[in-house]
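Reopening: structure tokens for the KG4 complex, inputs below.
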Amino acid sequence: MFLLGIETSCDESSAAIVEAGKNILSNVVMSQVKDHAVFHGVVPELASRMHLEAINAVIEEAFCHAGLSYSDIAAVAVVHKPGLVGSLLIGLSTAKAFAYQLGVPLVPVNHIEAHLYAPHLEQDIPFPNIGLAVSGGHTLVYHSKSYTEHSLIGSTIDDAVGEAFDKVAKHFDLGYPGGPIIDGMARDGDFLAYKFPRAKYKDDNPYQFSYSGLKTAVIHQLNKFHAKGHGSAVPDILASFQKAAIDVLLDVAVTAARDHGIQDVVVSGGVSCNSYMRSVFKEHSEITAYFASPKLSTDNGAMVAGLAYHLLKEGITADYSLNAHSKIVKQGRALP
Ligand code: KG4
Ligand code: ZN
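Re-run output (same inputs, fresh job):
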């Protein structure tokens, strides 16, 4: 059974064809990153226009790479939340048109659930597990019982971890997106050079944490050094920031795994590409960490088509009144 997955929630237009939730026949991703980089962040109106220009060609290419024709598709899956509404609507309208024309079901997919599914495309991961969705817009911790059942148990209370990377990079004109740039520069730095604050709120929820204090402390430190002309300290500061940002997530993941009597931790979303994160999670003796390959960790259609196979098996489809939502909606089977 072949499913078409469409993803346009932020600044990547993507379409993929996946067989039975696992076998990726094509996964075309057209990134707008360079177009937004001049503005140091995603410009929503520009993103929607670029999705509109790209989406038909991206879908066409997905069929071409897969060597399939439209009539081979059993269902059309689309991300309809959370994300930039204007961007989501481009993917959603296109998906509806395809599903209608082909006479196949439309499968509604949650972007975060799709990220949590990505590592399952390449490996068999047991349930229940602890799921970490770490991206530019979200930093969420889940107790996952199946591909489609996720209970939110913790999150950041302010900035997302990717947002912290992006803001630190922006402050010092390193470029956009900040995550991969800081990851690269931190390799030349000493991550023990600075001890930055690690805000964690243990009182009411041990899986809740904050990034705004860390971001401010790092920017303050960088300002101090720049004022004194010590540019060479920058890699040390970035490496120490990266350690502080990721170690909080490791602590939370290990605590959640221990509390729930679980060994397996699934990590997904753009920040899961981070090389320091991958090594400390993999090396920790108390957990078994699962990551997707980098191409499947950032936004892509394969994770959408993959998860949709399991949603479809559970009878989850949508009619043409399906709408786009910027936030995760607190109703139905949506994540809280
Ligand atoms: O999942 P994603 O592609 O899009 C969203 O749904 O947000 O994640 C993008 C985020 C950006 O904040 C980017 O800076 C971050 O992922 N990122 C990284 C790395 N690669 C991407 N953060 C840290 N280290 C990386 N290597
Ligand atoms: Zn994402």
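The chain has a mean pLDDT of 93. The domain at 2-116+297-313 is CATH 3.30.420.40 (Nucleotidyltransferase; domain 5). Marking as resolved unless the reporter disagrees.
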